[in-house]
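Handout, section 3.2

Students often ask what a structure token actually looks like in practice. Rather than define it abstractly, here is a full record for Helix-turn-helix protein. The first block is the sequence as you would receive it.
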Amino acid sequence: MTALGDRIRELRRTKGLTQKQLADLIGAKHNSISDWEKNKNKPDSNTITLLMKALDVDANSLLGWDNIQNMKSDAKELAAAILNNPKINNMLSLLIDMTDEDLSLVTSFIERLNKNKS
């Protein structure tokens, strides 16, 4: 299956954009585009939306979910990453019995932590 970074590179080139041009279109740093295309990092969900607009594709095409095999492969990868990470397993066990209100608070907190990293 083609990695997200490879799809970003392919779609960017199809549109005739340089990494800098794409970065300017979505308000990202040039090195972010490079890191995504090298599959070092992945864009966050807000950036995925910006990439879809800039590259003129839907989420399924950008994420490689335009066919069932890619979706199954991504789901297996994600499940393996979750199951093989003790920290995530521990966190999930803590979250499972939380109320919707508490889950919303935890989600907001995590989103703020991620924004502080940018």
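Discussion prompt for tutorial groups: The mean pLDDT is 89. How would you have guessed this from the sequence alone?
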